[in-house]
Specification:
The chain is built from one helix and 13 strands. By secondary structure, the chain is mainly beta.
């Protein structure tokens, strides 16, 4: 009996160190994958190639989303598997129900024409097939560089409108004088 009392006193003094339980399931991803390289299809046709160091899917967040917080590289393809554009960003979030991408950090896009787009924030709405931003944008074309604040584009990045353009624009001598440089410039590339 004495031995039993001594053992119970000795054991009762120890406390187990246990981490606090996670009660909110929405703070945990349902999936986490490292070193991702995958093809994504839409209606049975391969449309995207995605590469990322870390891919997390949060299905219980409101709204649910995919997180690529260590960067993402994405290529888009047409129906003949020809690359339409490639996109690289430091951080990206994809809201699956809305089919909306939010790309942040150093966002770089290259289109079929070889034009290079740089911005710090970009949205790509797959439902409307539009790409847009309200931030500074820099577009490198073979013969010029265009900058501005804000733009809208088709998802192939071939027809775009730049809001609040900046830079030097060369105009043919047609007798037209540019009086207001704060107007919107619309650039349309022929296919």
């Amino acid at each position: 009996m004495v031995m039993f009392i001594l053992l119970s006193v000795a054991c009762s003094g120890r406390k187990k160190i246990v981490g606090e339980a996670i009660t909110e399931r929405d703070s945990l991803p349902i999936m986490e994958t490292k070193g991702v390289s995958t093809l994504i299809s839409d209606s049975g046709i391969i449309r995207y190639r995605l590469q990322a160091e870390d891919w997390r899917v949060f299905d219980k967040k409101k709204p649910p989303y995919w997180a690529f917080e260590e960067g993402v590289y994405l290529e888009t393809f047409d129906t003949l598997f020809q690359m339409e554009a490639n996109i690289k960003a430091d951080t990206a979030y994809y809201y699956e129900k809305q089919k909306l991408w939010k790309l942040m950090g150093n966002v770089v896009i290259r289109n079929l024409k070889g034009e290079k787009f740089n911005t710090e924030l970009l949205y790509w709405d797959q439902n409307t097939e539009k790409v847009y931003s309200d931030r500074f944008i820099r577009i490198e074309q073979p013969d010029r560089i265009i900058t501005g604040r804000g733009f809208d584009s088709n998802q192939q990045m071939t027809k775009y409108t730049i809001h609040k353009p900046e830079g030097i624009f060369y105009l043919e001598d047609s007798g037209v004088v540019a009086a207001d440089t704060t107007q919107t410039v619309q650039i349309t590339q022929a296919n």
